[in-house]
Amino acid sequence: MGEDGYVDSRYDAPFYPRFWPSRLDDIKFSGAWWDTLRGRKAKGVFVCDMGELFGDWLPVKWQKEVFDVIKSDPLDRFYLLTKQPQNLIKFSPFPENCYIGVTATNTKEYLAALAGLAVIKAKVKYISFEPLLNRIIVNPPYTFSGDIDWIIIGAQTKPYKAPKIEWVKEIVEAADKAGTPVFLKDNLWSLLLSNPIEILTRPIKIAYEMDGILATADISGSNWGREGDFAVDMGGTKRLKIKEVLDIKLRQEMPK
User: Fold this and answer.
1) Phi and psi for 59 in degrees, rounded to 5?
2) How far apart are CA 51 and CA 30, in angstroms?
3) What total number of domains does the chain contain?
4) Are 217 and 178 members of one domain?
5) Alpha-carbon distance 127 to 100, whole Å?
6) Are residues 191 and 256 located together in one domain of the fold?
7) Residue 61: which CATH number?
8) Whole-number Cα distances in Å, 102 to 56, 88, 114, 248
């Protein structure tokens, strides 16, 4: 390990902890206050997407530098995902622009995620079931509570291994009962090609009838939702009775 806790470049092991201060400089520049004044749109930043920020093995100095940059850029959203939920409490309360998530691939990890998220303060707390490798027991008493603001579900990708559609459906049904938004990753499409289960999809093009006239409508925008047999825009100005769903997409909802 080099000076000031930075890893020397001679360490070639692929999973040896490394730290690139230059990546933080990129965020500092793009999130500078003059960008905000110029009306720059907020963006999402996935922090350590191939690493573990909350590991006990990391120098505290690295973790502090990451959070200092996050605090300096209140405009953007920072997604943090961990497999070490027991360590989250050390960093709570989190900045308002942090989405704090825990990966769970089985029921044991899911219960650890619930416990770790329950004791922290964060604007958005989520669980990522990616890769979903086993059935998750989400029935009482292990249902989603008010501590979970978002659910992500995805398949194993390398090598590709899709979960059973029943496992996905069970999680989505539990999330719906709790009023928790669900984001299904694109790598789940293969599950639905032959069996497009309604609860896992959202219509994006429909046929509807109004005043005896048959027409089609594009309802792919984020302002559209579905209430039973009706497509409803969130402004409440349109309510279309669905005669046929012509095209669908995966449910990919975001937390409010």
Assistant:
1) -60, 135
2) 22
3) 2
4) no
5) 9
6) no
7) 3.80.30
8) 16, 10, 9, 29
